[in-house]
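Example: FadR family transcriptional regulator.
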Amino acid sequence: MAALKAAGRTSLVDSVVEQLRTQLAEGEWAVGDRIPTEHELAQQLGVGRNTVREAVRVLVHAGLLESRQGNGTFVRSTADPAAVLRGVRHAGAADVLELRVALEAEAARLAAARRDTHDLLRLRAALTGLREEGDRNADADLAFHLAVVGATHNTAFVEVYRFFSAQVHEVLVEALGDREMPPVDIDAHEALVAAVEAGDPEAAERQARELLRVPMETVAALTEQNR
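Written out as structure tokens, the predicted fold is:
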């Protein structure tokens, strides 16, 4: 294994975390590999074992490492969710919405092809909640879209969308400031549910894109004004 560079005295834990992230990203250890012991890492980095222990704990929490009692610490993933998070947060509102359109259009298409009775009941309940809670209730809107994504019966899709949707909200709030997005189009949501109920993937995808057309146009106009 290539030696790790010794960490400086400032923010030692953060420094060790970043160096370990780099080692993982560069393929120093593959998924499933056991990383060196705390003692070995402490010697390589020139820091105390407590510092290494805290750094490893951070990476376990981030999902990159996995501690197995009595066996050591193993690589769970070399793809850093934090890096994805930073990239999304630094993206523009229009870029984030374009990605949202792609995700939701595919989710709608799959939902129409795979939905079952439970999914349809959940969709109708989410639509009712959206009507009752008000067209600007972010939680009610998110619950609706999560119901659509849930109807794909694709666990990976659900987890990615759940993670991504929170970042969309943060990016839009930061980009728009006090300016509001247009009210949620309840009729467009109703049309999407109808297409999913009808088992029509093409119509569902089309309605999902139509549902996000006005928000896309609004963000594009605001971006143009800020230039």
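The chain is about 70% helix and 5% strand.
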